[in-house]
């Protein structure tokens, strides 16, 4: 058993960097300041080295009416991150959900949709130029069967909207890392292959794409093995891309949680983090909120919850102990991030016993 001080006092971002990752981060919201204990943990760079705005940079928040941009909430998060010397993963530009009505209900031609996308991307990325380490350029464009999700962009432009989005993004902020981001890539091989298809389309069009973000919204008892997760990550590394877990949580399906379900959750968090450590081009890990009192899960999946590393009182759970111990044990075993990508070994043969279920 790991000694108490290592588990209780270890800080995740410091441990992650020692283990060769670029960051261990969290999603944040302006309302987090109302919880003083949570907010204090969130603002310590030893705990978290990267922020992702949960909603403040989504289309409905940023451009609620055409050509009118509202940056206040997003600016507050970005300013806080930079003041804390943290990285920003900015999120998101082209997504089927949380669109204002003027986009979702508009009658678009190829030309008018192209103009709207270019305007939105260039204005938003231009506003934050140089402040975002990475952007989720296109988000959740796939159904679980690997087909393209119906949305206004696909309807007007077909699959050309993928490359256009990345071209506009690269022009707006050439320094930002540009990602495709989606959920359930860890569960469904056909969907994971769909993300490969999108990345190849973007590359074939001559547009820059730097990474694939796997959201990693998992459920206790259903998380794939560490070996299988590593295999999935390496699908994208084989294309010359970085990977990252961008919205990690592991929900317990039936509440209340108990010692057994919390220990199972701890092992599955360990598998997720371990798979990132196993892949030299896995940049880092972002949890989608680190405390159960700030989780999105109970509202979206009634009856489920307790999905985070900390409990409702911002106290560490067994999952925190497992993750911190794993990161501590990996210290110095992986090249620091700035050299990791130059010595990549990729395994593309599927492990024999890896068959994830959703």
From TrEMBL:
SMART domains, per database record: Glyco_10
One Pfam assignment: Glyco_hydro_10
Predominant location: secreted
GH10 domain span: 16-326
Keywords: Carbohydrate metabolism, Glycosidase, Hydrolase, Polysaccharide degradation, Secreted, Xylan degradation
Compartmental location: Secreted
Biological pathway: Glycan degradation; xylan degradation
InterPro entries: GH, GH10, GH10_dom
Molecular function via GO: endo-1,4-beta-xylanase activity
GO biological process, one term: xylan catabolic process
Enzyme Commission no: 3.2.1.8
Catalyzed chemical reaction(s): Endohydrolysis of (1->4)-beta-D-xylosidic linkages in xylans
GO CC aspect terms: extracellular region
Family assignment from sequence similarity: Belongs to the glycosyl hydrolase 10 (cellulase F) family.
Protein name, per record: Beta-xylanase
Organism: Lasiosphaeria hispida
């Amino acid at each position: 058993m790991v000694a108490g001080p290592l588990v209780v006092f270890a800080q995740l971002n410091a441990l992650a960097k020692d283990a060769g990752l670029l960051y261990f981060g969290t999603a944040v919201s302006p309302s987090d300041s109302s919880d003083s204990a949570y907010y204090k943990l969130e603002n310590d760079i030893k705990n978290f080295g990267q922020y992702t705005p949960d909603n403040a940079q989504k289309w409905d928040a940023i451009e609620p009416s055409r050509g009118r941009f509202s940056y206040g909430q997003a600016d507050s998060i970005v300013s806080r991150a930079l003041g804390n010397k943290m990285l920003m993963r900015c999120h998101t530009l082209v997504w089927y959900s949380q669109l204002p009505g003027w986009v979702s209900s508009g009658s678009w031609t190829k030309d008018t949709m192209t103009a709207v996308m270019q305007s939105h991307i260039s204005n938003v990325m231009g506003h934050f130029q140089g402040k975002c380490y990475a952007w989720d350029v296109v988000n959740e464009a796939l159904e679980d069967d690997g087909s393209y999700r119906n949305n206004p962009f696909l309807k007007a432009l077909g699959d050309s909207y993928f490359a256009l989005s990345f071209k506009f993004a690269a022009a707006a902020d050439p320094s930002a890392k540009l990602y495709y981001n989606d959920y359930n890539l860890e569960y469904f091989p056909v969907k994971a292959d769909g993300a490969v298809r999108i990345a190849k389309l973007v590359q074939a069009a001559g547009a820059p794409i730097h990474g694939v973000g796997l959201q990693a919204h998992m459920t206790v008892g259903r998380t794939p093995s560490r070996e299988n997760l590593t295999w999935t990550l390496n699908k994208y590394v084989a294309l010359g891309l970085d990977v990252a877990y961008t919205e990690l949580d592991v929900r317990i399906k039936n509440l209340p949680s108990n010692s057994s379900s919390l220990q199972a959750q701890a092992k599955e968090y360990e598998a997720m983090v371990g798979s990132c450590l196993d892949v030299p081009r896995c940049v880092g890990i972002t949890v989608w909120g680190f405390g159960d009192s700030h989780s999105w899960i109970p509202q979206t999946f009634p009856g489920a919850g307790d999905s985070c590393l900390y409990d409702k009182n911002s106290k560490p759970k067994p999952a925190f102990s497992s993750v911190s111990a794993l990161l501590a044990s990996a210290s110095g075993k992986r090249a620091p991030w700035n050299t990791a990508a130059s010595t990549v070994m990729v395994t593309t043969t599927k492990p024999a016993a890896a068959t994830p279920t959703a």
